[in-house]
Fold each of these.
Amino acid sequence: MQIPYNDEELQTQREMIRLRRDFHAHPEEGWCEFRTTAAIVRVLENLGFAVLTGENVIAPDARMGVVEERLAAARLKALEEGADATILDRMGDLTGCVGVWKTGRPGPVTAFRFDIDALRGVSESLSPEHRPAALGFASPVPNVCHACGHDAHTAVGLGVARWIASHAHELTGTVKLLFQPAEEGVRGAAAMAKSGVVDDCGWLFGSHVGCEFGPNEIGILTEGYLATTKMDVFFEGTPAHAGSDPEKGRSALLSACAAVMSIQGLPRHSGGDSRVSIGRIEAGEGRNVVAAHGRLELEVRGATKEVNDFLADEVRRIVHGMAEVYGVKGKVVKTGESCRYVCDPEAVAILEDVAKVLPDKTKATVFTTERGSEDCAVLAERVRSLGGKAGFFCFGTRHKGHHRPDFDVEDEDAMLLAWRVFTGVLARLHHV
Amino acid sequence: MQIPYNDEELQTQREMIRLRRDFHAHPEEGWCEFRTTAAIVRVLENLGFAVLTGENVIAPDARMGVVEERLAAARLKALEEGADATILDRMGDLTGCVGVWKTGRPGPVTAFRFDIDALRGVSESLSPEHRPAALGFASPVPNVCHACGHDAHTAVGLGVARWIASHAHELTGTVKLLFQPAEEGVRGAAAMAKSGVVDDCGWLFGSHVGCEFGPNEIGILTEGYLATTKMDVFFEGTPAHAGSDPEKGRSALLSACAAVMSIQGLPRHSGGDSRVSIGRIEAGEGRNVVAAHGRLELEVRGATKEVNDFLADEVRRIVHGMAEVYGVKGKVVKTGESCRYVCDPEAVAILEDVAKVLPDKTKATVFTTERGSEDCAVLAERVRSLGGKAGFFCFGTRHKGHHRPDFDVEDEDAMLLAWRVFTGVLARLHHV
Amino acid sequence: MQIPYNDEELQTQREMIRLRRDFHAHPEEGWCEFRTTAAIVRVLENLGFAVLTGENVIAPDARMGVVEERLAAARLKALEEGADATILDRMGDLTGCVGVWKTGRPGPVTAFRFDIDALRGVSESLSPEHRPAALGFASPVPNVCHACGHDAHTAVGLGVARWIASHAHELTGTVKLLFQPAEEGVRGAAAMAKSGVVDDCGWLFGSHVGCEFGPNEIGILTEGYLATTKMDVFFEGTPAHAGSDPEKGRSALLSACAAVMSIQGLPRHSGGDSRVSIGRIEAGEGRNVVAAHGRLELEVRGATKEVNDFLADEVRRIVHGMAEVYGVKGKVVKTGESCRYVCDPEAVAILEDVAKVLPDKTKATVFTTERGSEDCAVLAERVRSLGGKAGFFCFGTRHKGHHRPDFDVEDEDAMLLAWRVFTGVLARLHHV
Amino acid sequence: MQIPYNDEELQTQREMIRLRRDFHAHPEEGWCEFRTTAAIVRVLENLGFAVLTGENVIAPDARMGVVEERLAAARLKALEEGADATILDRMGDLTGCVGVWKTGRPGPVTAFRFDIDALRGVSESLSPEHRPAALGFASPVPNVCHACGHDAHTAVGLGVARWIASHAHELTGTVKLLFQPAEEGVRGAAAMAKSGVVDDCGWLFGSHVGCEFGPNEIGILTEGYLATTKMDVFFEGTPAHAGSDPEKGRSALLSACAAVMSIQGLPRHSGGDSRVSIGRIEAGEGRNVVAAHGRLELEVRGATKEVNDFLADEVRRIVHGMAEVYGVKGKVVKTGESCRYVCDPEAVAILEDVAKVLPDKTKATVFTTERGSEDCAVLAERVRSLGGKAGFFCFGTRHKGHHRPDFDVEDEDAMLLAWRVFTGVLARLHHV
């Protein structure tokens, strides 16, 4: 357990817990984080941050996996739940924001990235054994909830903002706090990267709660996470009565199934681990009608961008070829993408340095992982391509597993641990 | 156009049009025809018929394609729309009824079959150019409407009932009017056949409105309609995270797609025409999860029972084998079945004889067809297997095509034509 | 049994049996009938026929399924077995010939077609119970033999030639005896049709021994035989070591198997019966090498040209699309093609007329069939497209089934029956 | 280049080159190494080794991929080429042998393994630029040649034998020289392991020429090579005429193609790298016949035994399930198997120790590899399971690539390098 050692820590912890529970009780899926963003903007501006929103932080055409028809309702709901109308106006259709603190003193530019979206596809447990339900801050929205802990990430970000504001006189250079939308499905980082908001950054750090780490543990990434591309595939055929005129139809169902067989059979790669998952298929309108519409949801992953791109390109070729095989139309829409997270030794060293002096017997481990994907990698790649350095760490908590109905950040003081790491990094890079 | 030539015809025609529009305005899908059945029962009993309902006319375990969870709501809706509670009680969960008229005089037993269900899967056009909409009797129920003309069939049946009651003194033997549920999807006839209600019948006749026949035309079937089996296929796999543990999953999606490829590839048959249609597939829960559930909706058809059974048996074998291939569970549920409609020359001769004296320049054609299926064939097969004779005819109307949102029995006097055929048959078989 | 009733019949019968056994003992597969053609030419010319060969009877570019590398060896073998070198020179690389008899008197032009090739793919039985083996005229060539009776067809043609020569003074008009190569695989008729040699014909008749007819039976075709297209499919991929560099290969094996699955799944056709058969696949070079080469042998059939062409076109589309799916090259080569055989009522009537006066209690049946294909249909179609009439008949014999190692024309006097039919036709159409 | 530094090295080198070229000129594929084995036995016995053959070194029922019908001819050929008849008699049908040298002094038991078979499937280049062809020792056998360098391995083994014999007085313990048949296709090691011949060994070392190492290089394996299972799959269907009776056939071709699609789609494994390769398919007898026979040649590989076994088990399940899908018989025959090669640190240390004092600027590298398989791993696993230690090294040469027609051990003095390593190991482990 992380114990607050002074008033600042105590108040920060209380504030982070309060904020985290508020976000938890108002979950918004990716690209719909209107209330969440507006709340962040208000806190940041109250603290004295300059806050960028809209196209200053999100390149609209680089957004992936936007479900356009949900945006207006999400915006309206945010308004009904008390989001500031003026802030919403500044945002337009684009969620996410960046708080910028310029000290006025020469020094580095450092970005910390916090992702803010809830997960779609899981309904939060309402069991009395599930703490958020018992304490009354569980998600009231069916099929959407903070089952990955981004609510905690956001709260940590605002805790760090508070520290910056009150320690401003001791700092140099510029700090940017990135509140990124739509991490689930690795959909949002590319749009934030393309906006250029991290192009002047010398350092970028991201983090995640939980994963394989428990209480009082932090994990410092060297490099890892699989590159991945998420794709929706659409087939459009020609309907016909399957009993009367079978030869007049062009089946979107058959083309979808044949594509599944070929995609699933994509070869292994000598360049490293790979994954192929066709997770959903839906095709056809009725038992005796040649199917006019078919749809696949799939993803590929690879140890490297090369492996991942090989697979993604193959999927596109298969779909186009299979459309010809069945005389239908085929289309592939990219709904998310991330790359391998490569950390710089200098960033790893700073995190190790911070970890050494963490209180409460906190244990730090250097790690690598091939088991999931994290789109902060895309921001890291942008920063590194321009000469900056990137790092990443996990901060542990007890939890029952991400993306489950009963996920909870069971040790909420884990947020204090993350806060100590982030502020420790600033103390090393930005102290006067 | 069919012109009423006397008061009886005029009043019958008016009554049939009134009834048909009432049924049209209150469409009920197969196995849910509670209001429709109750209305039929009341009319028949008012005319003096003995009316059988429930297990006397439907063998519960021979029903196919019942969606259990819809029955209670349908029953309640019928009650709200004025169905007689006492009649509903007699019916229990089973729709359909049989009106029996025993003359007391020795003579044959003849059954006429009328199907009563509306079609699920089509929403009726609300365009002012669509007559039922313009006249206010279009279906108010989304996705359910009388787009196949069974409303007219039911009305004809009641028109014939009226004739029997008023001509009772001239008749011999017994007449049974079968009001059969769930013809759409060929789900209901087998249950009525199995109840034994036609086992004493020497003759059985059925009919259909429209098809390829226009106004003032009747078509007399020699033999035809494809035997068919409708099946739903279920696969149950083992979910796993497709990125972390791909080898731990057992994909219901892959097994479903592979089954599709093999089923679609079922061989042709030397015994005659066949059809295979996999019209729907749905599988999987999420992009990065190995699919736990998969489902297919399909049908096969054959010129003969042998051809159809060959295909249906193959589907079952493929599903069970494919379940083993993918280490999942596979299940096939039959949701409908019909056979070839074989008419007896004697029945054809009677219809031809009746047709010769039809007024209004009505034209009769002897025909065969391989383009659809009709589950009255199952009742015909039952009657014939016990030594009876079966016939079938179509009565024409202008229409835009069955199973379309804008289907209408545009010449409603077509019902008078059908009535003349049925009563003409009785005049030949049952006249004292 | 057919009994010779006069010296002419007796000598013709003996000659036909002698010739048939000689052809049987020297079987030559399609496009390799060098010895057979040379022998026919010599007999015809000795009788006084003008004989056309080479490009006068075969359009080289319309030949299908030619295995170029076998031609030279076949020619050499013919020479070694005594074929006349001068005749071989006239033929060039093209087998088959047409004997023309012009009476000089005005009258119709009638063609009779006889196919001359042996079957590749079956080795004749050497069992002493197999009469050709017992009598010493069985095929000495492994994998090639007269297992379909074309040896008998050829002998009948030469028997008819003999009759024409000796009855020349009684005849009018012109008679053409077509000795067509490469009927097996329906490869030869199109090339003979395209040569134009039947373009002046008012009548064309063909025939086949056996099929479903027994001794003393003839079958007169009204219309039948399935249209068919035979195709070889080739895939060319990119080899790679499947263990070291799986992603560098492009598998011709996978593309071939996926094409098989899609071709086998071609839909039924409302226009009538259809067939799809992929009879052979061979792909790959070694267990651990991504396959560079793949090959399919397949055929489609249809009740009509439309049905058949639909399927053949679909095969081509599937192959090209699947080549794109797998990043390989795909090629379809047509190796044979025939159409439905449509007979004219006038031709059927003549055959019926002839059949009435056949001796030996010969029974004639008018028939249709959908069970095989016969490329004489292509010549019939050519004649009919230019205004001529076409007919076809089968003449029965005892036999164990075509295309079997133990096939034999067990009643060789069946040839006398065919000869009586052909000469009977001439007696009706060409008698002065 | 390795330079002989004394008479012993000079004579050994000459002898190894002479032997290697003799084996090269008389290549024998796996399980057919009769002449090769007989030659080895004679050399070993002349040197004073006790030589085990037949079931003493090969467990007959553990042999994989034996082509029984080739054994007798291979034996006869060996006899004709001068193999000693007495030795052949001792061997029976089993090739391979083990030379045992007991010093009589207490000490360890050490086994060195040399594989002796040539490769089937490649015909050696006869180009004058190919040194074996130019010098007259190229393979005279089509489709079989020493394209992997096992001829050199065998020669090294006999060179080591010579050293043991002449240094016998300086040695302790026991040395076993294993001459293993059928390494190609990883077919032979399991049978040698199962014979028990290495069960008393405290040490086992194997080696390979070439791979990624050049002249004057040795590679010392830590652990590597993929576990692998080679399988042949057989389907047996029911033939039928595809035009006349398509429904009566059960296609071995379709089942084979469908199995290919499912096998190629086997999932990735979280336990590490995997490979699937279906390298050959052949099915069907003729274009218009439902295929009665089908055959696949395939292999799977995995970074670990667990991964490999998962895939091999899945292949078996797919084949059995697919046989049910298509109503055919399916059979899987294992034709080869190997495991991951795990080396002990003690063995690695000895090799590193030897390498340090190698002359001629020889460079040693410690390496791991995932690119191929090596069945010496099976013997290593056996030794290790009983408490012994295992090592492995590669010795470099110039070459154009293994398994190519133009493969050659271009620096034949590479054998001297291998000899120095093996004898160096003995000098460390067995010196008095």
Amino acid sequence: MTEPAVRHTVELRVRYPETDQMGFVYHAHYLAWCDIGRTELIRTLGRSYAELEREGTLLAVSDASLRYHAPARYDDLIRVETRVEEVRSRTVTFAYVISRVVEGAEPERLVSARTTLIALTRDGTPRRMPDFFVEGLRGSLAAGAA
Amino acid sequence: MTEPAVRHTVELRVRYPETDQMGFVYHAHYLAWCDIGRTELIRTLGRSYAELEREGTLLAVSDASLRYHAPARYDDLIRVETRVEEVRSRTVTFAYVISRVVEGAEPERLVSARTTLIALTRDGTPRRMPDFFVEGLRGSLAAGAA
Amino acid sequence: MTEPAVRHTVELRVRYPETDQMGFVYHAHYLAWCDIGRTELIRTLGRSYAELEREGTLLAVSDASLRYHAPARYDDLIRVETRVEEVRSRTVTFAYVISRVVEGAEPERLVSARTTLIALTRDGTPRRMPDFFVEGLRGSLAAGAA
Amino acid sequence: MTEPAVRHTVELRVRYPETDQMGFVYHAHYLAWCDIGRTELIRTLGRSYAELEREGTLLAVSDASLRYHAPARYDDLIRVETRVEEVRSRTVTFAYVISRVVEGAEPERLVSARTTLIALTRDGTPRRMPDFFVEGLRGSLAAGAA
């Protein structure tokens, strides 16, 4: 039996404009990395978020929280691990662990975060998420809990 | 007796690159607006954050949380209200209310947020915040509680 | 006779996330400041760019060039001077001078830039710009040449 | 004889915050993609730009020009082709072609660009680029001309 990805992992490299004069990544950019994390998790559920949006389901962030443990630096290789934490008919919560990949050692945890997204129509009205999508998210959640 | 600003208010206009294809402001940019809010609050305490940093105190965000009530749109006039919520020797927590200014009506609340910052030396080691700064923040806090 | 603004001037303060680890403003952000410059120039012509877009005229950048003379730094007060350089039925070219405002001295030139914008329908098809808008731009151009 | 890469190619996926309400990528972000392009080209010359900077050579953009042929969209797979166009002792010019990768078809050209960078010390004084770096860039240039 194939299991959906429990923790979806994606890697990226820190870009120069993501740094600030402190020499670290500016704290707001981690939210964009969380976005990349859930985008790639969603892609494994059978349809990309881009398609979901074209079909009329927009996912807007309604809550976000981040804890910063250590700073990312320019050119670091970053790992974003994303998992589904809670699924309702109109909202989904993702949890993220963002780490620095260190050759020959354990990844170093930089940020842990959580975002809740609410499904909207193109007009901005809350709506139920499509069934296939809720099922995919629940499958991912169940696999994670197993 | 002059009171320090209890809620510091700053206004800004939404920039085109802050919008995304959903037609709203991308959720990460509100963190940059919170940054502007606390920067202007800090300026009223006698020294700018730029000076604070040149003198060896860096303030790095250690925790952030945001609740999104309604979306900001391109060219909206935005108000950021910032207040000091908690002050310790090495950390300070700010609370923010971000609203849309609507002519002839009450501002519309868009986002409420909270960030905790930790004082660091230039090497990234935690340090006590300068006395004048802690006192300024505490004055602002006390005035707010009165 | 009221003359349209020849060089429209707008001021802004450098934001922390606009800096990079070199300690300067990242070079791409000046394009966003040019955008602010032309947005405010356009506002003086009777309708905001936001309204123009809602009425079906999108202005997309087709060419951009920038020369960087000196770097902007965090918390600098920046002046963006914008003028209309050329107007055709479907395109308009703006020229910009971006300077640092220095108290008690001449502003220091940081960047000179030029962008050409092409008018598009919402589908992305090139279109003529609205008459009032072309006339406003030509008025600004003529006043500048006088 | 091994030849250095003549045109260095790197691919990336368009991120949601890179879009704007027009539904396209905001024009300033292409400069960040050019940055990624030359960073990866530089990496093939034996040392990363991050190392170059740690060793005291900063490369600051002194000129940039971009021509926008067609817009990138969210989730597009983007190819950045970078080549060295001119090398002097203190400056280097890179040329870029940014395309959309289209399955089963030729890539579609979106933007062509050019940036000149000047070598600076950590204080911002112009300096000669390190010999190994000039030689690497010249090798790449020569290979491209062959």
